[in-house]
Amino acid sequence: MMTNLFSIFDPSTNLLNLPLNWISTFIGLMFIPYSFWLIPNRHLFFWNFILNSLHKEFKTLLGKNSNGSTFIFISMFTFVLFNNFLGLFPYIFTSTSHLTLSLSISLPLWLSFMFYGWINNTQHMFIHMIPQGTPGILMPFMVLIETISNIIRPGTLAVRLTANMIAGHLLMTLLSGTGPNMSSYFIILLVVVQILLLILESAVAIIQSYVIAILSTLYSSEVN
Description:
about 220 residues; mainly alpha; transmembrane; hydrogen ion transport; ATP synthesis; CF(0)
């Protein structure tokens, strides 16, 4: 039962032993009309409002001389949000429910932050390991705790995104599988519950995109 349940997250379309489901991660960008970006409309204004709000927030966290850096995290937010929403449509592969994708996003970013921090701001990185006012006897333990906390950051970013996307999809799959065994009254109730779950999953898709972007921004600000 559990194997069949989790098989909804497996890449199932293959050509020459290559899983084509992963193409859905990028192919959606081809269907965005070119005129959408050129002709002013309410959707474009709303999207620009979101991007400008994120830019201002990320700029506050990163500092005044970080205009270019904010676009990295805005692009991450857009990419994760697009794939989260894409997975809510029927018969479309949910790439963000796999650690393969989420680790591919979080691990290179974390490594780049660490290399930059230890090479350019070595003293700051050492200072950051010991909070101000820590008793001398606790300093070795604080260094160990901070080191472990730093090492697991890419894993927690990846697992947080993957687990949240898997949980909602599994719940919707479990509920939809009980439909054939219910009476017509309960089927109507089930449809209402599924719609509410879909709304909840849409909110989760937005929140998780924001969380991974804002945490990455915070990690970046710590090495500067």
